[in-house]
Design brief:
With 319 residues, this protein is of the alpha/beta class. The chain has 2 domains: 182 residues, 3-Layer(aba) Sandwich (Rossmann fold); 111 residues, Rossmann fold (3-Layer(aba) Sandwich), CATH 3.40.50. Helices cover 42% and strands 18% of the residues. The chain has a 7-stranded mixed beta sheet with strand order 3-2-1-4-5-10-11, sandwiched between helices. Strands 7-8-6-9 form a 4-stranded parallel beta sheet, with helices on both faces. Strand 4, helix 4 and strand 5 form a beta-alpha-beta unit. The chain is elongated, with a radius of gyration of 22 Å. Bound molecules: adenosine-5'-diphosphate (ADP) and 1,6-di-O-phosphono-beta-D-fructofuranose. InterPro entries: ATP_PFK (IPR022953), ATP_PFK_prok-type (IPR012003), PFKA_ATP_prok (IPR012828), Phosphofructokinase_dom (IPR000023), PKF_sf (IPR035966). Its cofactor is Mg(2+). Pfam families: PFK. It comes from Dethiosulfatibacter aminovorans DSM 17477.
Length: 319
């Protein structure tokens, strides 16, 4: 290998910059040239690709977002778009590509590998919805951002003796709501993996009030509904002082936590090391904090296990 590319794709996530920095610096350390592909797969289609040197990744390790930009590029899924991308990869003499993103991005990486371009996937998404790995880049930072918000919302909810519904990201995966609910002392956690009926929600809030609780927190994953609709449904059932907070994109930005900077640095360097050594069509992950690699197809087949223990513990501890 003489020249590798790196791109970030799908939703951005804190820690992606640490990973880009590690890819670039590790490859240069091994005398390999790195090209930065802008806006995910869109940059491949539009030939928006830049040479990167040591200083292109200076002063980014502490920044959220991604310096390469990202995109949800529908065109790349079409045959025409994919072929344009392939032409540009060949035109730029790119020998292999590191893709930092989620499962959709890995589908794209898999297709490139099948077309003869070795790819390595680095898991980057705040949702933590990739089953094959313990943690994805950005999840830890987003969790801490949510926890900070829960603490603030608890203060005011307590003063006003209110229930607050906090809606967080997570389309198919409730990890952000579940673990922030456990760490933030929520009374109710509503996630796609564990549907809950309205009566149970109302009874939990009423039971808390009856034993003198000043406030209740309901964590709602976006994949399980809308905070304002839930509020209406609860207030139709019983008289309760309730407010909603939709955290939105605040969860995706911000300076990455120590954990995500370390994870990004380790995954980025390992990805470059493997690619330079000729390995392709794999994704990187961690198990017991040790980095491993796995065939992309195998990794994408693994189904996420629901952490029932954490879910039950949240209920027990918030009695
Ligand atoms: N089946 C697919 N084939 C080729 N490319 C895909 C496929 N699915 C997704 N992608 C590419 O990956 C990008 C990111 O996917 P998306 O699902 O939006 O985010 P994530 O990677 O975080 O799951 C898409 O915009 C598209 O360019
Ligand atoms: O930025 P967009 O396109 O509005 O996407 C919002 C979605 O992105 C996420 O933040 C992360 O999604 P990814 O899996 O693409 O990283 C989801 O939680 C959220 O539903």
């Amino acid at each position: 290998m003489r020249r590798i590319g790196v791109l970030t794709s799908g939703g951005d996530a804190p820690g992606m910059n640490a990973a880009i920095r590690a890819v670039v610096r590790y490859a240069i350390y091994r005398n390999i040239e790195v090209l930065g592909i802008k806006k995910g797969y869109k940059g491949l289609i539009e030939n928006d690709i830049k040479h990167m040197d040591l200083s292109s990744v200076a002063d980014i390790i502490h920044r959220g977002g991604t310096i390469l930009g990202t995109d949800r590029c529908e065109e790349f899924k079409t045959e025409e778009g994919f072929n344009k991308a392939l032409d540009n990869i060949r035109y730029r003499d790119i020998d292999g590509i590191i893709v930092i993103g989620g499962d959709g991005s890995f589908q794209g990486a898999r297709k490139l590998s099948l077309a003869g371009i070795p790819t390595i996937g680095i898991p980057g998404t705040i949702d933590n919805d990739l089953a094959y790995t313990e943690y994805t880049l950005g999840f830890n930072t987003a969790l801490n951002t949510i926890l900070d918000s829960i603490s603030k919302i608890r203060d005011t909810s307590s003063s006003h003796e209110r229930t607050n519904i906090i809606e967080v990201m997570g389309r198919n995966c409730g990890d952000l709501a579940l673990y922030s609910g456990l760490a933030g002392g929520a009374e109710v956690v509503i996630i796609p993996e564990a549907p809950i009926d309205m009566d149970t929600i109302c009874e939990t809030i009423m039971r808390g009030k009856a034993r003198g609780k000043k406030h209740s927190i309901i964590m709602l994953a976006e994949g399980s509904g809308n905070a304002y609709e839930l509020k209406d449904a609860i207030t139709n059932k019983f008289d309760v002082n309730i407010r909603c907070t939709v955290l939105g994109y605040i969860q995706r930005g911000g300076t990455p936590s120590a954990y995500d900077r370390l994870l990004g640095s380790r995954l980025g360097a390992k990805g470059a090391e493997l690619l330079v050594g000729g390995t392709g069509n794999v994704v990187l992950g961690t198990k017991d904090n040790v980095i491993f690699n796995m065939d992309i197809d195998e990794a994408l087949k693994i189904e996420k296990q629901f952490d029932y223990e954490a879910y039950e513990l949240t209920k027990i501890l918030s009695m």
